[in-house]
Write a structure and sequence with these properties.
This protein has about 400 residues and is of the alpha+beta class. About 25% of the residues lie in helices and about 30% in strands. It contains 8 helices and 19 strands. The chain has helices spanning about 60, 65-70, 100-115, 130-145, 165-175, 190-195, 230-250, 265-280; strands spanning about 5, 10-20, 25-30, 45-50, 75-80, 125-130, 150-155, 210-215, 255, 290-295, 300, 305-310, 315-325, 325-330, 335-340, 350-355, 360-365, 375-380, 385-395. The strands form 3 sheets. The protein has a 9-stranded mixed sheet, sandwiched between helices. Strands 10-13-14-19-16-17 form a 6-stranded antiparallel sheet, with no helix packed on it. It has a 4-stranded antiparallel sheet with strand order 11-12-15-18, with no helix packed on it. A hairpin with a 4-residue loop joins β2 (about 10-20) and β3. The protein is globular.
């Protein structure tokens, strides 16, 4: 932390030195009214994300975040993201290849948990955001489901498979070429889809979820009523994610009504969302068990599991039905899988693998922390990939 400025009874502005970003950055934090008076109490945290063209000040300056949370036992963190689409850029803009996701998830959240009295686990964290921040909320939650118990989008960019020029405009606002964020859509499609809430919707199972949008048709909240094309596009994205959730059987809060892409609606969205968020914090939903998780990253870790893929092309990998007795892995190429720490250190276990290009039985010994590590042959590149089923049992031989 470089500096701390008190702006009100509950509102504090922080300047942070970020080694990940390679620069200083800002955040505003709203504390519960009784934070100082209750030094033994820990509080849940809402990460409240701004949209494109706004900044870390916007939710308190325009979105009535201070007033909406006045009586709540809640810490609200509002970080800076410029126009970075809550992603690690693949090309440089005016500020270089800004790694916003690595900063927010790998640096900011640990700093908040070290510095303040938070409930520092999945059940004590939630995300919400508007427009670009709605994308950030759902994308971060889908890419890191073991960190968050809830996510809410207000007029969010929820399917970047549609209207792909929108992220390009954001990149240009921050001095980069249109393909600075995830690369060219023509050659790096999987990089785009690796961050896209619609593609990763299944990862959000087990969270409290809310999708709210306007149709672009103005209502009495608009001072100068006129049809809003941006909100009409946003509505299309939101409807697609709503339908995806419905198809997958994922429960979620859904609202679509008259409204434009403007602050009176987002302030209202926050107000009506907060009671459900607080109920979720009071009784967090359990993490899905067995675990299922999809990623296009060459290496990913979730809930204690790690998968490292070796493949010729980018592709989705899905770890599914992961529990103590085994798991399934879908993808292409080869993968090294390290299980969660569910086994007795030093004890031998029998492992059976079955798939189109894999059929083996082997004995493996759990390492010093109780994990098993194995190599899985998935097979050559193919539409949808290939699935290997793995069974694990204590070796009685």
């Amino acid at each position: 932390m470089v500096s701390r400025t008190v702006l009100g009874p509950r509102l504090v502005e922080y300047e942070l030195d970020s080694p990940v970003l390679g620069e200083r950055t800002m955040a505003r934090i709203l504390f519960p009214a009784d934070y100082a008076a209750n030094p033994a109490t820990r509080y849940p945290v809402l990460y409240l994300l701004h949209g494109g063209g706004d900044d870390f000040r916007s939710w308190t300056d325009k979105g009535e975040a201070t007033e909406s949370t006045a009586d709540l036992p809640l810490i609200v963190v509002m970080p800076e993201a410029r126009n970075g689409f809550y992603s690690d850029w693949v090309k440089a803009g005016a500020h270089g290849r800004t790694p916003w996701e690595s900063h927010h998830v790998g640096e900011l959240i640990p700093w908040v948990d070290r510095t303040f009295r938070t409930i520092a686990d999945r059940g004590g964290r939630a995300l919400a955001g508007l427009s670009m921040g709605g994308f950030g909320a759902m994308s971060y939650a889908a890419r890191h489901p073991d960190l968050f118990t809830a996510a809410a989008s207000f007029s969010g960019v929820l399917d970047t498979n549609r209207h792909t020029w929108i992220p390009g405009i954001a990149a240009q606002r921050d001095g980069g070429p249109p393909d600075a964020i995830w690369g060219s859509r023509l050659t790096r499609e999987m990089r785009w889809r690796a961050h896209n809430p619609w593609d990763l919707a299944a990862n959000l199972r087990g969270m409290w979820l809310s999708v709210r949008t306007g149709t672009g048709v103005p209502s009495d909240l608009d001072k100068h009523p006129k049809l809003d094309l941006i909100e009409a596009i946003v509505c299309h994205w939101s409807v697609r994610l709503h339908r995806k959730f419905t198809e997958l059987g994922i429960e979620h809060d859904w609202y679509c009504g008259r409204g434009t892409h403007d602050w009176p609606y987002w302030a209202r969205d926050l107000r009506v969302t907060l009671p459900s968020l607080m109920k979720t914090f009071a009784d967090p939903p359990p993490a899905p068990n067995p675990l299922s998780y999809t990623s296009a990253e060459p290496e990913y870790s979730v809930a204690g599991w790690t998968v490292r893929s070796r493949r010729m092309r980018e592709a989705f990998s899905t770890l599914s039905s992961a529990h103590r007795a085994g798991f399934s892995l879908t993808g292409v190429g080869m993968a090294d899988v390290r299980t969660a720490t569910w086994y007795e250190p030093g004890r031998a276990y029998r492992v059976w693998m079955a798939g189109p290009f894999e059929h083996r039985t082997m004995a493996l010994k759990a390492d010093g922390v109780g994990s098993l590590t194995m190599n899985v042959r998935l097979g050559p590149f193919g539409l949808g990939g290939h699935t290997v089923h793995v069974a694990i049992a204590e070796d009685c031989a």
